[in-house]
Amino acid sequence: MSATTHRATPWSPPLWTPGDWNALFGFGTNILVNLLVLTGLLRFVLHMPDAITFGRILPAAGLMLFLSTVYYAWLAYRLAKSTGRDDVCALPSGISVPHMFVVTLVIMLPIATMTGDPVKGWEAGLTWVFIQSFILMIGGFAAPVIRRITPRAALLGTLAGVSITFISMRPALEMFMTPVIGLICFAIVLAAWFGAMRYPRGIPAGLVAIAFGILIAWGAAALGLETGGRSLSALWAGLSGVGFSIPVPAIGHVFGGFDYLGIILVTAIPFGIYDLVEAMDNVESAEVAGDHYPTTRVLTADGVVSLVGCLMGNPYINAVYIGHPGWKAMGGRIGYSAATGVAVLCLTWLGIVSPLLDLVPVVAISPILLYIGMLIGAQAFQETPSRHAPAIVLALTPHLASWAKTLIDGALGAAGTNAAAVGMAKLAGLGVLYEGLSVLGEGAILSGLILAAITVFIIERDFTRAAAFAGAGAILTFFGFMHGPAVGLAVTPGLAAAYAMIGAFLYACPRLGLVPLAAPIVPPAAEPAE
What we know:
Elements: H1 19-45, H2 50-83, E1 93-95, H3 97-115, H4 118-139, H5 143-149, H6 152-177, H7 179-193, H8 205-222, H9 232-239, H10 251-256, H11 261-288, H12 295-311, E2 318-320, H13 324-329, H14 335-350, H15 353-359, H16 366-382, H17 389-414, H18 419-422, H19 424-429, H20 434-441, H21 444-459, H22 463-478, H23 493-511
Antiparallel strand pairs: 1-2
């Protein structure tokens, strides 16, 4: 049935298509990896009691993910029905990965260490999400306006920066560390999703890759080799924790975290803005792929389901995921999203997340994540005018800086030191401009968007709009939302002044007759009233 067919009679979109199997195994394993990482952080970094991890946090996270994925499946169903199209793909959603690390390492861990009680850290995390939820719901009403005035290259370019660094690089490194599994699984999915290869009986490529990874890893274990080998004793220990837990209200714990409000607000406000921009980018990415979703409704939904999860004990926020075009390209439509939510609910309420970590080698899942990163990075260049390519490259640089700083901090931390102790001059002498990485990389998604927007409007000789975005950069930098480690006054005043001077220069150029004027570019189409 053609996606463009106009139907004169009432029609209901199919809830499941063959392509949903591919998307289910791809998206479902993506969600599973995030749950496994989350579980590892709780158990081995925070030393959270298993009663809290498996009895309170994971069941609440499962409920939030179920509500989110089912809601976006319903939204896709409505879009398909209203347009008469059978190629509509639901927005992917799940626990925000950057937030997962931020709330664990920047909020929960310091408070747990300070108090000697990981439960206090959990409460602080709940309060953090509580505040974030309201920022999302309120900010959702401003997001459509921002989308209308921001060029597509800026929205997709900063998204490409996230995909290349924090989505693609880790899976790529994992694959080359265990190439017998990683590279072969990568070839399995590339041949199907880029090369249109069909496996026998229509078996989804994601399932073929995971099955191959399990076979090789457990075969290696049987032979006593180290190629992603698994341990029967670890698997058995994980199975002993299987049980049934449902979420229960944690309102008292949410308000218990308000004792640490000062620490929480330092990151809650800038990451709330990060959420708004990230969601706008991902909605824009879906629209480029042919599916229009109202930004306000998406952000409001993320805020509501995050609030529900928080009140039930989940200290991690929900977000629309990057990757909609990838799931759509592999055949995902409506059913994959809801089916993922049901599967996650079963996994978290039955407590079988941990044994799955011991069964499936993560390196078998890494190629799927790298595929998504490749697709999103390519989309920024493919779906924007070729003359805007320099702006997209500029949008990547803050994310590259942030990623490099993260690696340096991790390496120095493993050695028991940090950049300040080593000394900036000594690092610079070795070619590591740590201070530059820090300034450029802070608030990367915002700075990438601002820098790319300025460049696009300069390319289009719309110097007034370029000046306006430079002015916005000055304000955001002055208050620390970008190029600063925390929100405050005059966080990086010299850089804020530089943005302001750039704005004044760009505003003056056409008025002094220095450049010819041209018709401004057409920004993304305005959204209809909701």
